[in-house]
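Lecture 7 notes: from sequence to structure.

We start with a single chain of 273 residues. Read the sequence below before looking at the structure.
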Amino acid sequence: MNRDPLIITVAAVGAETTREQTPYLPITAEEIGEEAKRVREAGACMIHLHVRKDDGTPTQDKEFFRRAIEEIRKRTDIIIQVSTGGAVWMTAEERAQPLELNPQMASLTVGTCNFGDEVFSNPFPLIRRLAQTMRERDIVPEIEIFDVGFIDNAKLLIKQGVLMPPLHFDFVMGVPGAMGADESLLDFLISRLPEDSTWSVAGIGRHEFSMAELAIKKGGHVRVGLEDNIYIEKGVLAKGNVELVEKVVEMAKKIGRPLATIEEAKKILRLKR
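Now the structure, written as tokens:
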């Protein structure tokens, strides 16, 4: 059994979840700051950050990100990873905005896929532009894998000099229209990773905790949060992101994986600041 420190990432807000679906979704900068503090105290090391306008509309406006980051930093030392995915309808210019704030880390999706009834478009020119900006600003990318072929895309980008290994990957499993979520598929994804990669799993919806348990057992890391799943168990809303983190912490204790400290997480993720 792998005993390496476990990084728990929290996708606390997202671009799709609404207050109509769950009243526990943080929206304002102050709410996000408080949520970041709570999940850090519960055992999480990193927050995957989306932001919203005051009416709940998703935005990539850097000023909204700036406010949220300031509120987080007032309260906690949690690692901040901004999203460059935004929402499926956003332009490349919008999606790149939070990189201007020089965050510690940012997500980078390396392919196009169906996303429910929409299309999550990530053509290579956009990927190259975002990757180049991250490199210029010493922002560490997290490579988001929504479908199996994305790993081959990442390898091509490495060969072209766009991405520089070693890299950290996040397998987003169970999105309708993209890849599924099961152990055999996870094993295949792991087997396809470039050498010296690290990885985490984000199971979507009902797959969140089953995939989290597999990741813990197999030596990977875990992402949970209201962006991915709003239920603590079937039909029961989680009362915020903290309950989701606490459930993963209990899994880790039973399996025997210690939680990473912030410094351990920075070393594992190879953060440059």
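The first strand starts at residue 8 and ends at 11. Keep this in mind for problem set 3.
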